[in-house]
C-alpha cells in the first residue's frame, strides 16, 4: 500500500499517480476498478472518481459502460525529466495476468517517485517482432527496458530475447546466464519463501494433512523453489503431503477435486497463486464442498479476484512497491553498464480472510511468530495487523470505580 496521502488536495496527488499509471500502460489497457485503486492509493473511492474525471475530461481515458475504464491516449502531463538517461521502456505481455497488472501499477508509482519517464508497449511474444518494439523504444529515447512479468514456461524464449535485445532489460527473477538482469540477487530470490511459515500456520490451527496445488510445468523457477520448501517441511514433520500440478482448464481441476474430496475436513491447501486457488474452490463447489468448512486454502499474490471470490480467499501479499522500485533501479543501472540489485526479499503479509480457517481462531493467531510473514486480518476489506499478546499495550486505567 502506498504511503498515505495528505488530505489537502489529495485528489491532485491521486491524479498524478493515475497519469503516471496511464503513461506506463499501453493504449487500450483497462484500468483497475475504482475501489481497488482506492485501496492502492489509501483513499476514498470518491477521491479516485474525482481524479479519474480529470483524465476523462481531457481524453486521456475513456469509460465504457459495463466494460470499465480504458487508456485512450498517453497523458500530456509533463512528468518527464529533461535528461534522456531517465527514460525507461516497459514491455507489457499481452497475456498478462492480475499479478502482472499489480506490478505495472507499482512501476508507475516508482517512476513518479524516482522522476523516471516511462514509455510502454505491448508485445505478443518474444519474437523478432518484439525485438523491433524494443528498437522503437530505443529510437524514442529509452535507455533500458523492464519486463515486469512473463509466462514462466517461456523462460528459454525470454533468455534468447534478452540476449538479442538492442537495450538492456531488467527482469523480475534470475534466469540462468542472465543473473545480472534480475532486480534481485540470485541468492536472495525466494529467500523469504513463505511456504514453511504457511505450513506452520496450518499446523498451529490443528491441520495435519497439507497439500499444494500449482501449474503442471517443468521450467518455472519459482514453482521449483516453492515445491522444494513444501516437500522438505512435510518430510521433516512426517506429514502426508499430496501435490496437485494441473494443466489449464476446468477438467484437470475437477479431477483433482474428485481425488481430494475424501480428505474432507482434514485438508489444508497452499496454492501457487490466487488463480489456481480460485479454480480449485470452483471445482470443489461443484461437488458440494466449500472452504473453510470442508477444507482450508491460501492463495498467493492478493489479486482483485481473491478479494471478491465467494468466500473471500486468504492470500499472501507481496510488497509490489518494493519490487517496482527495484525493477526500475535495475533498469537504470543496466543502462549505465552497472549491476543494481536488491539483496533481500521484503517481508510478506498473509491476509487472513474466510478460506484459511484463521477467523475462528483469533486468540491462537496472536500467539504465532512467523519470521517471513505478518498476519493481517481482512474480514471486511479493512486489513488490520494481528497483534501478539506481548506487543499489546497495557490497557488504559478506567476512571470509573
Structural class: alpha/beta
- Form type: globular
Question: Sheet with the most strands?
Answer: 8 strands, mixed
Helix content: 25-40%
InterPro entries: LacI/GalR-like_sensor, Peripla_BP_I, Tscrpt_reg_HTH_GntR, WH-like_DNA-bd_sf, WH_DNA-bd_sf
Protein name: DNA-binding transcriptional regulator, LacI/PurR family
GO molecular function: DNA-binding transcription factor activity; transcription cis-regulatory region binding
Domain HTH gntR-type: 8-74
Q: What is the topological layout?
A:
Elements: H1 10-24, H2 34-40, H3 45-57, E1 61-64, E2 68-71, E3 87-93, H4 98-114, E4 117-123, H5 128-139, E5 144-146, H6 155-164, E6 169-170, H7 195-204, E7 210-215, H8 221-236, E8 243-246, H9 250-260, E9 268-271, H10 274-286, E10 296-300, H11 304-308, E11 314-317, H12 320-335, E12 348-352, H13 362-365, E13 373-377, E14 384-385
Helix pairs in contact: 1-3, 1-4, 2-3, 4-12, 9-10
Describe the fold and architecture.
The protein has 401 residues and is an alpha/beta fold. It has 2 domains: 193 residues, Arc Repressor Mutant, subunit A, CATH 1.10.10.10; 168 residues, Rossmann fold. 37% of the residues lie in helices and 15% in strands. The chain is built from 13 helices and 14 strands. α11 links the parallel β10 and β11. α2 crosses α3 and α9 crosses α10. The longest helix has 17 residues. Keywords: DNA-binding, Transcription, Transcription regulation. This is DNA-binding transcriptional regulator, LacI/PurR family. GO terms for molecular function: DNA-binding transcription factor activity; transcription cis-regulatory region binding. It comes from Terrimicrobium sacchariphilum.
Amino acid at each position: 500500500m502506498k504511503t498515505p496521502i495528505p488530505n489537502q488536495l489529495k485528489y491532485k496527488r491521486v491524479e498524478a499517480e493515475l497519469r503516471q499509471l496511464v503513461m506506463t500502460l499501453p493504449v487500450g489497457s483497462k484500468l483497475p476498478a475504482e475501489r481497488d485503486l482506492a485501496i492502492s492509493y489509501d483513499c476514498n473511492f470518491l477521491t479516485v472518481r474525482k481524479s479519474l474525471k480529470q483524465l476523462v475530461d481531457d481524453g486521456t481515458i475513456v469509460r465504457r459502460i459495463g466494460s470499465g475504464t480504458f487508456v485512450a491516449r498517453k497523458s500530456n502531463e509533463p512528468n518527464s525529466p529533461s535528461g534522456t538517461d531517465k527514460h525507461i521502456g516497459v514491455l507489457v505481455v499481452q497475456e498478462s495476468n492480475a499479478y502482472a497488472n499489480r506490478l505495472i501499477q507499482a512501476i508507475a508509482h516508482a517512476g513518479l517517485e524516482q522522476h523516471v519517464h516511462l514509455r510502454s508497449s505491448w508485445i505478443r511474444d518474444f519474437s523478432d517482432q518484439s525485438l523491433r518494439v524494443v528498437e522503437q523504444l530505443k529510437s524514442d529515447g529509452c535507455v533500458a527496458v523492464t519486463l515486469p512479468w512473463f509466462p514462466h514456461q517461456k523462460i528459454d524464449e525470454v533468455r534468447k530475447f534478452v540476449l538479442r535485445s538492442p537495450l538492456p532489460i531488467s527482469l523480475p527473477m534470475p534466469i540462468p546466464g542472465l543473473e545480472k538482469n534480475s532486480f534481485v540477487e540470485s541468492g536472495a530470490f525466494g529467500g523469504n519463501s513463505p511456504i514453511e511459515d504457511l505450513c506452520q500456520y496450518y499446523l498451529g490451527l490443528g491441520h495435519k494433512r497439507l497439500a499444494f496445488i500449482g501449474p503442471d510445468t517443468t521450467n518455472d523457477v519459482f514453482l521449483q523453489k516453492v515445491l522444494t520448501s513444501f516437500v522438505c517441511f512435510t518430510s521433516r514433520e512426517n506429514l502426508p503431503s499430496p501435490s496437485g500440478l494441473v494443466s489449464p482448464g476446468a477438467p484437470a481441476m475437477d479431477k483433482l477435486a474428485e481425488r481430494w474430496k475424501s480428505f474432507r475436513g482434514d485438508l489444508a491447501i497452499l496454492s501457487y497463486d490466487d488463480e489456481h486457488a480460485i479454480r480449485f474452490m470452483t471445482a470443489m463447489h461443484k461437488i458440494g464442498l466449500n472452504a473453510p468448512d470442508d477444507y482450508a486454502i491460501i492463495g498467493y499474490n492478493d489479486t482483485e479476484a481473491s478479494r471478491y471470490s465467494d468466500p473471500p480467499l486468504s492470500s499472501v501479499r507481496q510488497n509490489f512497491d518494493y519490487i517496482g522500485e527495484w525493477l526500475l533501479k535495475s533498469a537504470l543501472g543496466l543502462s549505465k553498464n552497472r549491476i543494481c540489485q536488491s539483496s533481500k526479499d521484503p517481508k510478506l503479509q498473509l491476509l487472513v480472510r474466510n478460506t484459511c480457517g484463521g477467523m475462528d481462531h483469533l486468540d491462537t493467531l496472536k500467539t504465532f511468530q512467523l519470521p517471513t510473514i505478518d498476519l493481517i486480518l481482512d474480514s471486511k476489506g479493512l486489513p488490520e495487523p494481528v497483534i501478539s499478546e506481548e506487543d499489546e499495550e497495557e490497557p488504559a486505567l478506567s476512571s470509573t470505580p
